[in-house]
Amino acid sequence: MEVAKPKKIAFCITCMNRLHHLQQTLEKNIRDNYLPEDVEFVLLDYNSKDGLDEWIRQNMQTHIDTGILVYYKTLEPEYYFRSHSRNMAFRLANAGILCNLDADNFLGEGFASFTINEFAAHESVFYTSDESSHDTFGRICVKQNDFLLIKGYNESLQGYGYEDVDLFDRLIKNGLERKFFHNPEFYRSVIHSKAERISNEYMIKNMEQMYITYINPYSSGILLLYRDYTFHHCILIDTPHLYRLPRFLIPDNYTEERNEVTLQEDYLKGRWQDKDNEIILHQNRNTEAFPKNESRIYYQNCPYYRILDKELETELIILLNVAMNRYSAQKQLRENQAVNTDGFGKGCVFKNFDWNTKIVLS
User: Fold this and answer.
1) Three-state helix/strand/coil letters over 230-290
2) pTM tops 0.85
3) Selection from 33, 36, 37, 41 nearest residue 12 by Cα
4) What does the pLDDT look like over 135-148, one tens digit per residue?
5) Distance, CA of 283 to CA of 151 (rounded, Å)
6) Element (H or E) spanning 86, and its range?
């Protein structure tokens, strides 16, 4: 079987139930960066249920035929897992430079040429946005060898946020220089809600109840009960607020970075059960119980209030995901823990609608 010649750059798109975004961005991104000999767009359909495969078949076959678009589909994931999906797409790409491209992002005309020229002019670098736009923060361009050397995105980080920062940090630790693209044309994206941003992820789809307590001006306790009868409890630290307070209020052991929301310590995990109209929490050998449908409960001798407002719920889930991932990633980095020791981006995919040939990434 003949192996295709590697392209210079691959734009790696992962998509779960975001067809309405790709309908706005994919065709334009290809037209604005139409260099079939140098560019490929790798689209990983991460088990979408919204007709993405049929739309690609009906509207993008010409681009598949020219080789500038390669379509893969996996039937395995139940939820959107950022690190894993991106690792799969990056491994499927056949190019010297790999670029993460969110489904809601517009590349801008000439982004491919700009990036190819920059990597030709500079050694030991990777490129990211200049952080002027939150919606394009995750766009990173990195040489394939450098990405594989650090074993990709950290798959121990689950849920929304920080997986890209962790990747940046590990590339820098491995001796690469972070450089930026500044052209405003490279920063456009489809506007969408925060709720949509996390709509296919485990935490939001499986949350049963969520409670919050006020501890002091810079910290709050969060208790989450999941539908699989597990729970998380943690204390969120609002560091911008913390650093505006008198020094004596800052915990002596506090060492996390400023301007971020993080965890005071690692989160607690346990199981819960619904029994006799009570919620009973089990964590190691400890148990606590409270009435099932009360808006105020007591946990660890503190009053917790059930969150019913959907916008607040979404905000807190995003903050919590980022904080949990930040805590785990920084601990791994400090302790020089290896990432993805059992491999990364594993799974089975089908290429360009060939349902008879399964490609196994092991």
Assistant:
1) EEEEEEEEEHHHHCCCCHHHCCCCCCCCCCCEEECCCCEEEEEEEECCEEEEEECCEEEEE
2) yes
3) 41
4) 888 999 999 999 99
5) 33
6) helix 82-92
